[in-house]
Specification:
Layout: E1 3-8, H1 16-30, E2 34-39, H2 54-57, H3 66-75, E3 78-86, E4 89-90, H4 92-99, E5 113-120, H5 126-130, H6 133-140, E6 146-154, H7 168-179
Helix pairs in contact: 1-7
């Protein structure tokens, strides 16, 4: 049994990327793994101040919800990020979270596989793939980790908060991928 952590970074309730996260979670649960989902809209995550104290102390000087999140990331076997794509980039909430995982860099961590679940209102193109560079760069900083799979729900019609629910093909793929974790 694996420990799986899913972080959903949309600030909208019932968002498209949250729907992907929920389907992934259902697949992981069906496979019998332990899963925890964090909704970033419910968390206080302040900006990194770049002091680099965490590189020596292995903890951040900022007091917010990131200590708990970093502890969960460190102890998870699998990490999944769900994000909407805004202006061809991951959500600001997710980028802030990635920056604040700096205390994990110099320590031992368990996660090996990283999954990316994203939604975009645009049609699939090279820009959409490049939108995930922040996550690619984050994974590059952790030698033992790799991106296992990226699933991007695209369609010009998913600008409304729940339109991904009409994209059964993407939802099924995310569910099946969760089962294979």
């Amino acid at each position: 049994m694996k420990k799986v952590l899913i972080m959903s970074s949309s600030l909208r309730n019932n968002s498209n990327s949250s729907s992907l996260a929920n389907e992934f979670m259902k697949g992981v649960q069906e496979a019998g793994h332990e899963v925890k989902m964090i909704q970033l809209q419910d968390k206080e995550i302040k900006y990194c101040i770049g002091c680099l104290s965490c590189q020596k102390t292995h903890r951040c000087v900022i007091r917010d919800d990131m200590k708990e999140i970093n502890d969960l990331i460190k102890e998870s076997d699998v990490v999944a990020f769900a994000t909407p794509i805004y202006f061809y980039e991951v959500s600001g909430q997710l980028k802030t979270l990635l920056d604040r995982t700096n205390p994990l860099f110099p320590i031992e961590y368990k996660f090996r596989d990283v999954y990316v679940l994203a939604t975009a209102a645009d049609e699939e193109n090279e820009w959409i793939k490049r939108s995930l560079n922040a996550i690619d760069g984050w994974v590059e900083c952790f030698d033992k980790a790799k991106i296992k799979e990226k699933i991007i729900g695209v369609n010009a019609g998913i600008t409304d908060s729940d339109n991904i629910t009409n994209n059964m093909e993407t939802l099924k793929k995310v569910f099946e991928t969760g089962k294979l974790v």
